[in-house]
Amino acid sequence: DLAGDRLAILAIRSSVGGRSILWNISQPSTPCTWPGVVCDNTTNRVVELHFPGMGLSGELPLNTLGNLTQLTTLSLRYNALSGQLPTDIFSLVNLRNLYLQNNLFSGPIPDLFSPLGNLVRVSFASNNFSGNIPSSIGNLTRLATLYLENNALSGSIPDLNRPSIALFNVSNNQLTGGIPSKFVGFPESAFSGNSLCGGPLVSCNGSETGSSSSDKLSGGAIAGIVIGSLLGVLLILLILFFLCCKKRKQKDEIKTKDLSEVKQVEIEIPADSSSSGFPSLTAAVGGGGAKGKSGEVNKKLVFMGKNKIGKFDLEDLLRASAEVLGKGTFGTAYKAVLEVGFTVAVKRLKDVTMAEKEFREKIESVGRMDHENLLPLRAYYFNGEEKLLVCDYIPTGSLSALLHGNRGAGRMPLNWEMRSMIALGAARGIAYLHSQGAKVSHGNIKSSNVLLTPSYESRVSDFGLAQLVGPNATPTRVDGYRAPEVTDIRKVSQKADVYSFGVLLLELLTGKAPTHALLNDEGVDLPRWVQSVVREEWTSEVFDLELLRDQNVEDDMVQLLQLAINCSAQYPDKRPSMAEVSNQIEEICHSSGSQQDRTPPSDTVSDS
Ligand SMILES: Nc1ncnc2c1ncn2[C@@H]1O[C@H](COP(=O)(O)OP(=O)(O)OP(=O)(O)O)[C@@H](O)[C@H]1O
Predict the structure, then answer these.
(1) Top mutation candidate among 343, 388, 461 for ligand 1, by most atoms within 8 Å of CB
(2) Distance from Cα 542 to the centre of ligand 1, integer Å
(3) Cα(402) to centroid(ligand 1), Å
(4) Which amino acid residue places its CA nearest to atom 23 of ligand 1?
(5) Contact yes or no for 488/471 (Cβ under 8 A)
(6) What CA–CA distance (Å, rounded) separates 529 from 532?
(7) Which of 67, 186, 325, 436 could lock 26 by a disulfide, CB 3.0 to 4.6 Å apart?
(8) pTM of the predicted protein model
(9) 111 Cα: distance to centroid of ligand 1 (angstroms)
């Protein structure tokens, strides 16, 4: 079957294709239609090039790859490419991943790494490279992986930026000398098969590990370095502290301003309310406030469930200073700091056209949901047009903010343990919802609806709201999460929830936002992108770079990835149930030791 695009694939796999393909891709018109080539859909420039195991042979063409100035990934591993590396590769300043392992490249690795400050992963393993390890690799401050094993490299290990490097291997070369002491911590196997000493190998001079005795630092020098570093850190902390104080002050000023506008415009008292203000209302626990004369009822905040939140009335709520958290599908969410001393989140619903009785019934069934991984609905207010929902305010914010916010300096990386715990908590919360009846589903699973406590326990929010809205509600940011069979956001199902949860798992693993206009002109969504990458056996390339620092959990990551792929299957029948999903994640967490053996969640209502 050589029809259509299959013919192109065959051409790439033939050894004669290697060079001509590499020539052609530098022409900007056609490349994005080819397998293995990923383009930026705005510039139509090649941003990733994956040609692994395609039987490419011969030398890389000169002055060709260097034309792909936007390239972030160059993967030519498992081919039979030979000769020296063309130096124009070293002008690709956006390069993050350079995979040339398992080829027949020879000659020295050019010492030209200095401009490649974005490089994170480099593998030159299993080639015939000779000469020294280029010292300019030491300038790569973001380098996390360096694989140089199984070559003919000689000389000593240069000064590398050890703090950023998590995965490292120089075994089976001809390296000599002492292993710098900063490499202590890597296993013996990372250095074996050389004439090296120190570090995890036998000591160079009988007792010392690390650098050879000639370049050993004196006690005074070490003390000087330690004191100098401490002073440096102290200075940086002081500067950060002052900057934070200044920023917070500015933020407070802005918030106060926003708030006064919000109070007047957004949480406006409905026109039919008594002009003398709202009477002081006593909270009616368990929905009892819905009883009584309707005129009074309309002015009441109806409290629900176990009411851990404490008592306050509508007037308190309206007096609270409020800050807009964001606008979503169902209305605007506010953070409201009550004068009585605690903070709540208030959602002002829009597009709810449902009659009062039906609304109260639906919202009270939402209020009955009680699970440690769900964000409980504490109270609601219904008066004609005005509908407010009150829940705990979660100061840490949402998974979406944590994954995609602040990707720059100062970001706290989310490691495997945190991510798998977040996945497990969210799965448990949704599985609980599904266990409450075949027709109970969430309807709007996405990372902005998974809120996180300071100890990274998940609280799934917004469940059951999809059934309240009218047909005109325009979903925000759900497109990437919505199951293919869902055409009306009110017609939700448990299997559609499983799909959305699968996308959320993919988001957790890849670090890519599903709502981001993805990857190429054809608008490939996150599940399809991941599937295509996995099909081509580049599985390890889908994971978020932050996850690659975790050692010995790759199998667990791949298992979770497989589960996510199963959840986001195109046909609902092929998707597992949420209970199965939750059990499987629990097993995965168990095997990697990130079990949730934690103290029960504390009350999440924060005091202001
Ligand atoms: N209880 C809460 N505590 C802290 N932040 C919250 C809380 N509820 C919502 N948020 C945050 O406020 C923002 C707006 O939330 P909202 O639920 O209104 O919209 P959304 O999640 O973006 O979309 P949708 O309405 O479709 O769920 C989001 O970033 C959300 O994470």
Answers:
(1) 461
(2) 28
(3) 13
(4) 328
(5) yes
(6) 5
(7) 67
(8) 0.56
(9) 50
Å from CA of 449 to ligand 1 middle: 6
Average per-residue pLDDT for the chain: 75
Higher pLDDT, 332 or 216: 332
How far apart are the CA of 316 and the centre of ligand 1, in A?
Answer: 22
Q: Using a 6 Å cutoff on CB, does residue 604 contact ligand 1? A: no
Three-state DSSP string of 360-375 = HHHHHHHHCCCCCCEC
The closest-lying atom of ligand 1 relative to the alpha carbon of residue 462 is: 27
User: Does any ligand 1 atom lie closer than 6 A to the CB of residue 464?
Assistant: no
**CA 388/CA 340 separation, integer angstroms:** 19
The CA distance from 190 to 149, in Å, is 8
Q: How far apart are CA 373 and CA 240, in angstroms?
A: 35
Alpha-carbon gap, residue 13 to 162, rounded angstroms: 38
Question: 368 or 608: which carries more pLDDT confidence?
Answer: 368
Both tokens assigned to 292 = 């009584």
398 lines ligand 1 (CB under 6 A): yes
| 420 Cβ below 6 A of ligand 1 | no
- Atom 27, ligand 1: residue with shortest CA distance: 328
* Res 397 pLDDT > 60: yes
327-375 confidence digits (pLDDT tens): 877 788 999 888 777 788 999 888 777 888 888 888 888 888 899 999 9
- Name residue 562's amino acid: Q
471-494 burial code (b ≥16 CB/10 A, e <16): eebebebbebbbbeebeebeebbb
Please give the backbone phi and psi of residue 408, each rounded to the nearest 5 degrees, phi first: -85, -155
Angle between helices 578-591 and 554-567 (to 10 degrees): 170
Which residue bears the tokens 């009785």?
A: 357
Place 528 in a pLDDT band, splitting at 50, 70 and 90. confident
- What ipTM was assigned to the predicted interfaces of this complex? 0.96
Q: Which of 129-143, 159-173, 520-534 tops mean pLDDT? A: 129-143
Q: Is 299 annotated in some ligand binding site?
A: no
For ligand 1, the distance from its centroid to the CA atom of residue 326, given in whole angstroms, is: 6
**pLDDT single digits (tens) 439-481:** 899 988 999 999 999 888 999 998 888 777 655 555 544 578 8
Which residues touch 294 (CB under 8 Å, ≥6 apart)? none
Q: Which two tokens stand for residue 477?
A: 């940011």
The residues, any chain, with a CB within 8 Å of residue 69's CB and separated by 6 or more, are 45, 91, 92, 93, 94
Q: Which residue has the tokens 């990458």?
A: 533
- Ordered DSSP codes for 75-118: E--SSEEEEPPPGGGGG-TT--EEE--SSEEEEEPPS--TT-TT
Look up residue 606 and give its DSSP letter: P
Please check whether residue 148 is in contact with residue 169, taking contact to mean a CB–CB distance below 8 angstroms: yes
Q: Above 90 in pLDDT, residue 297?
A: no
Among protein residues, the one with the nearest Cα to ligand 1's atom 26 is 329
